[in-house]
C-alpha cells in the first residue's frame, strides 16, 4: 500500500479500480464494446492534517479518483474509506465531512448574489448560526470577498468565482478538502490569495487537503508530499524533491542581458536557447537556483531573470524514460 503521513488515517484506498465500458462504431450497424481502466489498482493512505498533491497528465485518472472519494462514482473493485465511511454507500453522511472544489465547475447559484449562495449552503448543511458567521467571516476576510457578496455569480471573474467556491466548500467545517485544479486560469494575484488561504487553513484548523493541479508552484507552495498517477496507476509517492530526482526534471533560468552575448557557460547548466540578449539555461530541478543566480549576476551584464518550473508532463515522461 502507498505510504501515508502517519498518525490518524483519514483517507484509505486499497487496490481501488474504476473501469468504464466504452462503445465505438466499427461499421454501419456494428458497435464494439471495450473496457477502459481509468484507475487501475491504486493504494495509498492520507493522514489527518496532510496536504498532498495528486498530479499527472490529462486523462491519468485524477478526477476519477476524486469522484470516487466523494461518492459520485462507485469503484469497480478494491476498498475505499474516507473518515471511516464508504463514500459510495453513505454519500449523504460523507458530504458533511468533506468539501469539494472543481476548478472548471461551480457549486454556486449562477444568477444569485454570492451571499445568497452561502445562505443556501447554510440551510443545506444545517450549519449553526454562530459557526456559519465565524466561518463566513474568516473566508470573506482571508479570500477578500467583502466587495463581492452582493454581486451575482455570473458577473464574477474566474478568479473571484474560484475564491467564492473555496469559501462555499468550507462553510460547514469539512475535515477533508478536495481541490481539483483550483488555480486553473487564475491570475498571479488570485493564485497567491488562494495559496495563502489554504496554507493558513491547514495550519490553523488542520484541514486535510488533496490537491490535483497542473501547476507545480501550487504543489511546491502547499504540499510536502506528492503522488503521481498516470494511466490509472500510482507511479510515485513521496516528497517533491524526490520526484524531481526520480524524473531527472530540469528547471529553466531565463536571463535577460544588457546586450547580446555568447552562450552563458556555467558548471551544472546547459544553454537551451539564445535569442538576442535573452538566454535560457537548464539546470537540475532538485538543485537550488540561488548559486546560479549569483554567478550570473557576478559575471554577466544582467538586466533581469526568472526561473521557470518544469512541466509535470515532462517530469513524468522522464520517469518513464528512466524505467525503460
Automatic annotation (TrEMBL):
A Pfam family matched in the record: ABC_tran
The name this protein goes by in its record: ATP-binding cassette domain-containing protein
SMART domains for this protein: AAA
UniProt entry tagged with the keyword Aminoacyl-tRNA synthetase: no
Organism: Streptomyces bambusae
An annotated Gene Ontology molecular function: ATP binding
Domain of life: Bacteria
Entry's localization field: Cell membrane
Statement: the UniProt record of this protein carries the keyword Nucleotide-binding: yes
Domain ABC transporter: start-end pairs: 11-256
Keywords: Antibiotic resistance, ATP-binding, Nucleotide-binding, Transport
Gene3D superfamilies tied to this protein: P-loop containing nucleotide triphosphate hydrolases
